[in-house]
Write a structure and sequence with these properties.
mainly alpha, two-stranded antiparallel ribbon, 6 helices, 2 strands, about 75% helix, about 5% strand, elongated
Length: about 140
Amino acid sequence: MHTEPVGIRARLSAAWVFVMLNMIFADILSFMSPGTLQQVLTGSADGIQITPGFLLIAAVVAEVPIAMVLLSLLLPQRTARWANIAAAVVTVAYVLGLGSATPHYVFIAALETLGCLAIARWSWTWRPAELRAPAASLATQ
């Protein structure tokens, strides 16, 4: 089987989609756990007060992988490299810090963490493309 190489930017963007979809489904499945939705509707879940401030912080942190889908493609290489590493660290901290010990969450959190570790590794080893041959660069000037 022959596979075409995937550019690092596309690989990072796709990995962020993978992480983000897993985050969404972890939350959806968590709401299906008996009693969880009722707790949320009362304004408190597992000892966490659900306030406008809490929701804003959760929205900002949840936006990280969403934004990285585009930023991985649009930022300059050096900035994108460090943004992907930082975003992977923040996302793992969020996933592990605010998660539960339910079997479905542990399973999905493990996949999210592996996805973020792959993102961090690919970003860490990402180097700029080699300079073009002088003749090619002259032709484009």
